[in-house]
What we know:
There is one protein chain. This protein has six helices and two strands; from the N terminus they run ααβααβαα. It starts with a helix and ends with a helix. By secondary structure, it is mainly alpha-helical. Helix 3 (about 35-40) crosses helix 4. The relative contact order is 0.18. It has a single domain (about 5-110), classed as Winged helix-like DNA-binding domain superfamily/Winged helix DNA-binding domain (Arc Repressor Mutant, subunit A, Orthogonal Bundle), CATH 1.10.10. The chain has a two-stranded parallel ribbon with strand order 1-2.
Amino acid sequence: MTGDYAVMRLEGKSFHDRVIAAIRAVPRGKVATYGQIAAFAGSPRAARQVVRVLHSSSRKHKLPWHRIVNSRGRISLKPGQGYEEQRARLISEGIEFSDDEGIDLARFLWTA
Length: 112
């Protein structure tokens, strides 16, 4: 790994800390998936743990939580429970949604 990704794999850092670093590294106008963040943090099968980190640490660490979506390029939050806020934040960063509310990952997915 090179660049920002190398920071996430530092020895001695917890998975939680690496997840936080990975989420912080997602640039404006791009999205990452829960599984992608888990892989960058060193545990590719820990997508559900990424959800827990987001839930428990987004405010405390001022994370760009809205840039994390599911593997199908969709917002996982339900309407009335954060969906509208996440969608609005993504649109304000230039992310476009299809008619069926999906995000084109070929265009907007964060890559190294």
